[in-house]
What we know:
The complex is a heterodimer of chains A (113) and B (118). Chain A is built from no helices and 11 strands. With 113 residues, chain A is mostly beta strands. In chain A, a hairpin with a 6-residue loop joins strand 4 and strand 5 (45-51). In chain A, 36% of the residues are buried. Chain B is mainly beta. Chain B has no helices and 11 strands. In chain B, strand 4 and strand 5 form a beta hairpin. The A-B interface holds A 2, 4, 31-32, 41-46, 49, 51, 89, 91, 93, 95-106 and B 4, 40-45, 48, 56, 58-59, 90, 92, 97-99, 101-104, 106-112.
Amino acid sequence: KNQVEQSPQSLIILEGKNCTLQCNYTVSPFSNLRWYKQDTGRGPVSLTIMTFSENTKSNGRYTATLDADTKQSSLHITASQLSDSASYICVVRPYGATNKLIFGTGTLLAVQP
Amino acid sequence: NAGVTQTPKFQVLKTGQSMTLQCAQDMNHEYMSWYRQDPGMGLRLIHYSVGAGITDQGEVPNGYNVSRSTTEDFPLRLLSAAPSQTSVYFCASSYSTPVLAGSTDTQYFGPGTRLTVL
């Protein structure tokens, strides 16, 4: 079982609508949690990075939240645009690991006009 | 400032052939790494380097070699390609290693190399 689970696997929304993507992790303790956006055929691009002590981090229309007690993070996208169509990947860095980042498999978001 | 560049973008190999995937960055980053991305799986770390002359294995290093003779370049060599190495390969760099405790350095990824081994 993957230590970082994302849901839903895929999502279709209409342009202008909001959406929330979920990330549940079992990694404990952890150092930080990252969200990346990956456009089709491109490399991932960093959206937010939160340490274990942070609850929320924003980057424009993207807002990530973190609940370390329930081991859940969410990425909220406000007023979606066609360019938001991409895969969104949650990544957890375990505390104390020497070279490990644990990647989720991503949520594929399609924004339709 | 080109960021992280990778060549080639696409490559088809036959089983047993060898090749080198190129990666370069112009941000003077010390940390560079190689990942592979397969359908239904998260990115997995192959090898990484914390500076010129220093490399180490990641999660899935078998069948791959790396070297780091300069800060800018971090090539990945496939010694004898196998169909199991069919994947998309990403190179990434950051100012410091993202796995250091407390590090929140942004990792920058290249555009990827799509490799097919027949």
